[in-house]
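Retro notes (design track)

What went well: tokenization of the new backbones is finally stable.
What didn't: we kept losing track of which sequence belonged to which structure.
Fix going forward: every design gets posted as structure first, then sequence, in one message. First example under the new rule, 304 residues:
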């Protein structure tokens, strides 16, 4: 019989049975994946972004395959907080897994409305998507300006009943500046990286592959960039980090943990392989057994 390994991690006082969760927007709220993945095995389910009112999202086509990954310009289509609270949260409550709700908005008031409505629900943590365009600041993303990020983080922190995770955009000059701003404003954790802005042109149609022209790049090709940014942030702040970007295997996840992430999210690979999250959990455990690691904290941040 294999030796049991301890994969428990704690983020802002919330203990996860293992460090593996889903990346927002790639797993819905788990309903579509229930027949493939035992949600009870996941450390947490991170929901698709939820706004104060339903969002239609961008026109189609809004997904394109590229070398080493995919581009998406879904535009955070979602049914709004009322439907989410009526349908998705009760579904997730059936499972023995932590629930992290991803929150999006176009103004700070939008975010605050959703955060307040989630206050007395079963959500364990809130992940705040600051890659949304801030309509009051000329559509620059909340997470692309350190002062703007500090402002939204501090306002959300005052209203939120759950701990908050600020999800950082990689589309900045210095990711550590953003991480420090989130920490200084009271964020309980950070998650990174969100998608990298990319473009694909269909040379046969002489047209953009996405109706939106640009989209968010995700998948294995962005992993080295994500690992580098997680490492930089782990050495810049003292709050927990959830690492993501191109994770396909347990070995990929271990790389993020060694760089300093306390937990990891699996995103684009859910579209390629619906069993990906479960296989990553198995892979981490197999790695730990292979090297005689009894506790996952032995490898978190071990590379300096």
């Amino acid at each position: 019989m294999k030796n049991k390994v301890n994969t428990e991690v704690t983020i802002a006082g919330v203990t996860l049975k293992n460090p593996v969760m889903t990346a927002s927007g790639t797993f819905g709220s788990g309903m579509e994946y229930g027949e493939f993945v035992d949600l009870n095995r996941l450390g947490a389910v991170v929901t698709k972004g939820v706004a104060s009112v339903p969002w239609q999202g961008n026109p189609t086509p809004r997904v394109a395959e590229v070398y080493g990954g995919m581009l998406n310009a879904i535009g955070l289509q979602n049914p709004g907080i009322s439907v989410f609270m009526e349908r998705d949260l009760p579904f997730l409550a059936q499972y023995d897994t932590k629930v992290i709700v991803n929150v999006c908005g176009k103004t700070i008031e939008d975010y605050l409305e959703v955060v307040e409505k989630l206050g007395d629900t079963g959500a364990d943590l809130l992940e705040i998507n600051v890659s949304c365009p801030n309509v009051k600041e000329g559509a620059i993303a909340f997470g692309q300006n350190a002062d703007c990020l500090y402002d939204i983080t501090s306002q959300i922190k005052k209203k939120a009943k759950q701990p908050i995770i600020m999800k950082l955009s990689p589309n900045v000059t210095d990711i550590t500046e953003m991480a420090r701003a989130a920490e200084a404003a009271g964020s309980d954790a950070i998650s990174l990286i969100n998608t990298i802005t990319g473009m694909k042109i269909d040379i046969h149609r002489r047209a953009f592959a996405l109706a939106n022209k640009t989209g968010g790049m995700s998948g294995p090709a962005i992993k080295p960039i994500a690992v580098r940014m997680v490492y930089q942030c782990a050495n810049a702040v003292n709050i927990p980090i959830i690492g993501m970007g191109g994770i396909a295997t347990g070995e990929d996840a271990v790389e993020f943990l060694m760089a300093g992430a306390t937990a990891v999210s699996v995103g684009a690979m859910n579209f390629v392989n619906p069993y990906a999250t479960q296989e990553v959990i198995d892979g981490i455990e197999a790695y730990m057994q292979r090297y005689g690691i009894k506790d996952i904290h032995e490898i978190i941040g071990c590379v300096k």
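Added context from the reviewer: The two ends are 34 Å apart (CA to CA).
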